[in-house]
Amino acid sequence: MSESRRELRAPGQVKEITSLTNPIIKDIRALAMKKFRDREHLFMAEGLKLVIDALDTGWTIRTLVYAKAGRGNKAVETAAARTVAAGGLVLEVSEKVLSAVTRRDNPQMVVGIFEQRYRALKDVRPAGGDVWVALDRVRDPGNLGTIIRTVDAVGANGVILIGDCTDPFSIETVRATMGSLFSVPLSRAAPQEFLGWRARFDGLVAGTHLKGSVDYRTVDYAQGPVVLLMGNEQQGLPEELAACCDRLVRIPQAGRADSLNLAVATGVMLYEIRRGMLPLENSA
Ligand code: SAM
């Protein structure tokens, strides 16, 4: 028996659960609700790869849940041993319980419950060639997850959520990040707090706006740190946020569409801002 397996089989370290009425399972299922996530400061990540990514990047695991079918799987047992070593709980559950926890018919074999993490805005201090994306009231979990994934892909530094945004720790957003959530620092701020922070930031704040007069390709983004400010899906940037930008840029469009999707516009902007920093040779 391997070291990790012996550790895992110690009495009391793996609980076997088959009932949906088990109180631990009820608490985990409640994480589908934002109110409960906010209260507990926890969230759920599905899939062995994501759980391993999270453990590797230092996120704190509280509970590891795996399907009975995962018993004997070396990677699952290693993740379980790491959970126990971190003081977390390991649950071996039936397929039925795992489906209920993930609200999926064909759930992943492993689910991790992790502590949420935000960086205080005062500790966000972009310098050098740093790029942060600031999102005004992003509402769609798919958009937010896609943006976090794109921020990770281009090597930008983090995301600031301004005002009433969709929850980055909802199951839909976490899924859409495809694991990038664990590598991209998140901060959040009320609009006034962001404006106060912005006043002390002396890099470039580039806002995107359908009425922007500047072609996004004509700005020199390489002179120092950049904050890219993106507007809400329905309303775009409100006046007070638009007014705090050094540049209001626009991405030209040719067809009949009124605007680009928020995540697409963010991707276009990030690739332009980071253009000189992304030689093909760096790709996997
Ligand atoms: N009806 C909204 C408006 O009037 O602004 C459309 C918002 S658009 C779906 C969401 C955000 O994506 C915008 O606030 C802006 O940040 C960005 N965006 C979308 N298309 C853009 C474009 N062509 N140029 C600049 N920004 C764009």
UniProtKB/TrEMBL annotation:
Q: Which GO terms describe its biological process?
A: methylation
The catalytic activity of this protein is classed by the Enzyme Commission as: 2.1.1.208
Instruction: Recite the UniProt keywords alphabetically.
Output: Methyltransferase, Transferase
**Occurrences of domain RNA 2-O ribose methyltransferase substrate binding (ranges):** 44-120
| CDD domains per the UniProt record, alphabetical | SpoU-like_rRNA-MTase (cd18095)
Molecular functions per Gene Ontology: methyltransferase activity
Per the UniProt entry, the signal peptide is: none
Q: Which Pfam families match?
A: MRM3-like_sub_bind, SpoU_methylase
Gene3D superfamilies reported for this sequence: 3.30.1330.30, 3.40.1280.10
Q: Which family is this protein grouped under?
A: Belongs to the class IV-like SAM-binding methyltransferase superfamily. RNA methyltransferase TrmH family.
Q: Which PANTHER family match?
A: RRNA METHYLTRANSFERASE 3, RRNA METHYLTRANSFERASE 3, MITOCHONDRIAL
Task: Provide the protein name.
Answer: 23S rRNA (Uridine(2479)-2'-O)-methyltransferase
Q: Which organism is it from?
A: Nitratireductor thuwali
